[in-house]
Amino acid sequence: MKKDIWTTNQIGDLTGKVFIVTGANSGIGFEATKVFAGKGAQVIMACRNQSKAQDAKQQILREFPDAKLVLMQLDLTDFSSIESFSNEVKLQYQRIDVLLNNAGIMTVPYGSTKDNLELQIGVNHFGHFYLTMKLLPLIDKTPNSRIVSIASIAHKFGKLNPTTFVYDENRKYHTARAYAQSKLANLLFTYGLQTRLEELGSKVKVLAAHPGISRTNLGEHIKTLSYKPIRGLINLFNQSQQEGSLPGIRACTDSSAKSGQYYGPSGFYEMKGHPVVTKSTKRSHSKELQNILWEESHKITKQDILL
User: Fold this and answer.
1) What letter would DSSP give residue 100?
2) How many CB atoms are closer than 10 A to CB 9?
3) What is the pLDDT of residues 206-249, one digit of tens each?
4) Is 58 helix (H, G, I), strand (E, B) or coil?
5) Is 173 a known active-site residue?
6) Class of domain 14-301
7) What confidence tens digit (pLDDT) does each residue in 124-167 have?
8) Are 204 and 139 in contact (CB under 8 A)?
9) DSSP class of residue 283?
10) Annotated catalytic residue: which of 173, 262, 263, 269?
């Protein structure tokens, strides 16, 4: 029996819908933006670097001249920037059909956000937590709306340690552990948000996805990838950023998707392949860890669900 292979051809007309994509100027965020715009959606490209965002917009317009693309400034390292972005969106738009929490950083040197959080957990989780809470009332008012977060295979190695959330220049730092923690946090947040919204009777679908191992610029800080033999070996098991974008795109658009689902590649160890529903670790489904992260997130951001 032939497997049912999902492709972007199965996405219907998105005209009239409003999508927000964080980190839309590069990698899988760029590829997702291109697909959504090509199907008729208005896409808000929420990016920190507006020059790069403008270049990305022009590149998409060359392929889709009628694409509805809006550039908006968003710096996920700065709560005040997230506040300004959210207020501007709520002022200009009456609906948000999909919020794709895509932007992320990986194994960067130890540093802090504007609000004194460790960079990787600050951008990958707390920035998106703040953004989601601010936009949630508008998302909730939009019929058939979704919130999708991009996680990673790395979540399998993640452990939650709230003592590492705040930046401390004297702390020992392991870049890969910090990244894995931030990706575990993406899933704990997804499942925790799903539970809370369902308890409130909200119809918003909350999903997650991961790109497998994709050829993007996300791994530029991984020193071993600078060695050609290792890079060549990795290239045997990875896929293009366009292919890596498909699990997230499917989570955002598949009419059969259910809240709480997690999409990833279908192949060996989920490194590459067609987008399918997959499973995350037992740890990511821990109610205890979900609640700990939620409490810490509320304490740090001063944000919570207000519908």
Assistant:
1) E
2) 5
3) 999 999 997 655 544 444 344 444 344 445 567 899 999 999 99
4) helix
5) yes
6) alpha beta
7) 999 999 999 999 999 999 999 999 999 999 999 999 999 999 99
8) yes
9) G
10) 173
